[in-house]
Design brief:
There is one protein chain. By secondary structure, the protein is of the alpha+beta class. The protein has two domains: 2-81, Gyrase A, domain 2 (2-Layer Sandwich), CATH 3.30.1360.40; 86-219, Cyclophilin (Beta Barrel). Helix content is 24%, strand content 30%. The strands form three sheets. The chain has a seven-stranded mixed beta barrel with strand order 5-12-9-10-7-6-13. Strand 1 and strand 2 form a beta hairpin. Helix 1 crosses helix 2. The longest helix is centred in the first third of the chain and has 18 residues, at 21-38. The protein starts with a strand and ends in a 5-residue tail after the last helix.
Length: 224
C-alpha cells in the first residue's frame, strides 16, 4: 500500500496499480477497520477500485497520524472476515427501453434475448460509486457485451437506465447526461436523500440483475 497526502486534510492510499476483486476487498476491509480506529476524526472515506481517500478533521489529527492509522488498518485485515451482500436489481430489457441493445447484439452476433441472458449471468462487483450520487460502477461484464462509450453522449438519459460501457455496467440513479450504451430500465430507487442510508448499494457489494416484464416493471414503481 502506498499513501500520499492529497490536501490539507486528506490522504489517499493506493493498494495496487490495477483493480481486481481481491484488491478491492482489501480496500473495503481497510476502510472498515479505519472507521473503527479513527472514529469522529474522519470526515469522509471514499473507497474505490484500488484506492481509499481519507478526509479527516485537521483539528483532531494530522497527516502523519493518519498514515499510521492506515498502515495499522491495512495490516489488521482478516481475509476470513469479508462481509458482502448481494443486491438483486430487476431489469426491463429491450430496444423500446434500452435503444442500444440491438447494436450491442448485432456487434456480438447474438440476439437481444441473448444480450439480456448474458447480462444476467454474472454477479457484478461494486467497484466504485461516483459520477452522480448512487451511480455504482459494476464489473466485469461478459466480453461479448463489451462496448465502448458513445462518441457523442446523450444529453438526457432516463432515471433507471441500465447501461454498458467497455466491460462495466451500471444503472443511472437519476436523469442525467450520459455516454453509456442503454439496454433496459430498472425500477429500483438507488438514491434517496431522506433515508438514513441514502444508497442501498455500497462499494464491496455484489449486484445481480433479474429480468422482468413491463407489467412487473410498472408494479414495482417504474415509469415509461
Amino acid at each position: 500500500m502506498r499513501v500520499e497526502d492529497t490536501g490539507e486534510n486528506s490522504v489517499i492510499a493506493w493498494f495496487a496499480d490495477k483493480a481486481s476483486v481481491e484488491v478491492n476487498e482489501s480496500v473495503v476491509a481497510t476502510c472498515r477497520n479505519l472507521e473503527q480506529s479513527m472514529g469522529d476524526t474522519i470526515i469522509d472515506l471514499v473507497p474505490s477500485y484500488a484506492s481509499l481517500l481519507v478526509v479527516f478533521d485537521p483539528f483532531k489529527t494530522h497527516h502523519a497520524e493518519v498514515h499510521e492509522w492506515l498502515s495499522a488498518a491495512f495490516e489488521s485485515i482478516n481475509p476470513t472476515e469479508t462481509i458482502t451482500k448481494v443486491i438483486e436489481l430487476p431489469v426491463l430489457y429491450g430496444e423500446a427501453y434500452g435503444p442500444d441493445i440491438k447494436r450491442i447484439a448485432d456487434n456480438a452476433g447474438i440476439t437481444e434475448f441473448q444480450v439480456a441472458q448474458l447480462h444476467q449471468s454474472i454477479e457484478y462487483r461494486v467497484y466504485a460509486i461516483g459520477f452522480a450520487p448512487g451511480f455504482a460502477y459494476l464489473g466485469e461484464i461478459d466480453l461479448k457485451l463489451a462496448t465502448p462509450r458513445l462518441e457523442i453522449p446523450r444529453q438526457n438519459v432516463p432515471k433507471g437506465a441500465v447501461a454498458i460501457a467497455d466491460r462495466q455496467t451500471a444503472v443511472y440513479p437519476s436523469e442525467s447526461p450520459g455516454g453509456w450504451n442503454l439496454i433496459g430500465l430498472c425500477p429500483t430507487r438507488l438514491i434517496d436523500p431522506t433515508e438514513k442510508l441514502p444508497m442501498p448499494i455500497a462499494v464491496g457489494d455484489w449486484v445481480r440483475f433479474i429480468e422482468i416484464d413491463e407489467a412487473q416493471y410498472l408494479n414495482l414503481g417504474g415509469e415509461l
